[in-house]
UniProtKB/TrEMBL annotation:
Protein name per its UniProtKB record: DNA-binding response regulator
InterPro entries: CheY-like_superfamily, OmpR/PhoB-type_DNA-bd, Sig_transdc_resp-reg_receiver, WalR-like, WH-like_DNA-bd_sf
Feature: DNA-binding region: 126-224
GO cellular component: cytosol; protein-DNA complex
Native source organism of the sequence: Leptolyngbya iicbica LK
Molecular-function GO term, any one: phosphorelay response regulator activity
PANTHER family noted in UniProt: REGULATOR OF RPOS
GO BP term (any one): regulation of DNA-templated transcription
Any Pfam family: Trans_reg_C
Positions of post-translational 4-aspartylphosphate modification: 53
Segments forming domain OmpR/PhoB-type: 126-224
Length: 224
């Protein structure tokens, strides 16, 4: 089930743009254009995360945030604001916001913050992952292909973990860089290709079927 995001933004063009970008990321998006409608939408849709404009007619974003928290809403709230003074940031956080982005913002940064907060809000992850005859244990950091044990470096393990956590999903290079190497990674741009090659050599050492497939011009996918 795709995460549900409530976007409360009175600028119609900006709201449409952000809605489309969130949709491309496979989120289920509900849009409200004022604070009161946003409060009702939060009650009706029970979103997993709220993106909330600060400056709106009627109820401000800070007031909406405060009211949501008083009703027991515990999911992440990210404020979108042109206010960047320290006092304003403190006011937003004190009202119950988890994070904020300053307008005009980069959509890539906004999406990264959404993913980060949704990730933190997920229930405890399972220890063991399996895809066909490939198994991975997060607790012991053991990887096997059938009965054959495979030794991986720390970063090879992290990359395989991410692929196995998202099986049959095409993962872009940018997404992999962000999730495995970190959002601010500034190293070799070919690092993913290098590590995918290392993984394939180890996973296919005894002629096993290839599981990590290249999607030309896009990224990689773990599939049958």
């Amino acid at each position: 089930m795709n995460p549900k995001i409530l976007l409360i933004e009175d600028e119609v063009k900006l709201a449409k743009f952000v809605e489309l970008e969130l949709g491309y990321e496979s989120y289920d998006v509900t849009v409200a254009h004022d604070g009161l409608s946003g409060l009702m939408a939060a009650r009706d849709t029970e979103p997993d995360l709220v993106l909330l404009d600060w400056m709106m007619p009627g109820l401000s974003g800070v007031e909406v945030c405060r009211r949501l928290r008083t009703t027991g809403f515990k999911e992440p709230i990210i404020l979108m604001t042109a206010k960047d003074d320290v006092a304003d940031r403190v006011a937003g956080l004190d009202a119950g916001a988890d994070d904020y982005v300053v307008k005009p913002f980069s959509i890539e940064e906004l999406l990264a913050r959404v993913r980060a907060h949704l990730r933190r809000n997920q229930p405890q992850e399972v220890d063991a992952l399996q895809f066909q005859d490939l198994t991975l244990s997060r607790k012991t950091r053991e990887v096997k292909r059938g009965d054959r044990a495979i030794e991986l470096t720390a970063k090879e393990f992290d990359l395989l973990d991410y692929l196995m956590t998202n099986p049959r999903q095409v993962l872009t290079r940018d997404r992999i860089l962000e999730e495995v190497w970190g959002y601010d990674f500034m190293g070799d741009s070919n690092i993913i290709e290098v590590y995918v090659r290392y993984l394939r050599l180890k996973l296919e050492a005894e002629g096993e079927k290839r599981l990590i497939q290249t999607v030309r011009g896009v990224g990689y996918v773990l599939k049958d």
